[in-house]
Amino acid sequence: MMTHGRHMRDAAKDALSFIQNKTRNALDTDRMLTLSLVKCIEIIGEAASRITKERQAELPKIFWSKIIGMRNRLIHAYFDIELDIVWDTVTQALPPLLDQLEIIIGREE
Question: In this structure, which long-range contacts are made by residues 102-107, counting pairs with CB atoms below 8 Å and at least 24 apart in sequence?
Fold first, then answer.
């Protein structure tokens, strides 16, 4: 979990730093922000998919299938990305995920 967990944590931190002092409307006008957030979510999902099913089962507070599913959706439906979902993911789902990852990584180090 350590390496992949760190990748997830780092990408979550990056995404949250990118939205500081931004609003949802920024995604409509700032292509660099949009692409950055999408890439961070993709990295989180890719790293999550590399964590064994057994380890995922030991960490039920993390919604593994949703994280991996979001990555798959972004990769395969790139031109049909809902910016509201990207914004909600970063602003609502990433902070509690980051909290969980910090706890897990702290225990494992």
Answer: 102/9, 104/1, 104/5, 104/59, 105/2, 105/5, 105/6, 105/9
Catalytic entry in 6, 55, 76, 107: 76
Determine whether 7 is an active site residue.
Answer: no
What does the DSSP 8-state code read for residue 51? S
pLDDT digits (tens, 9 = 90+) for 44-70: 999 999 999 999 999 999 999 999 999
* Helix, strand and coil in the chain, % to nearest 5: 80, 0, 20
Active site residue 76: yes
The pTM of the full predicted model, rounded to 2 decimals, is 0.93
Q: Cα separation of 83 and 35, whole Å?
A: 11
Alpha carbon 68 to its chain's center: 9
Instruction: Check 4, 31, 55, 71 and give the catalytic one.
Output: 71
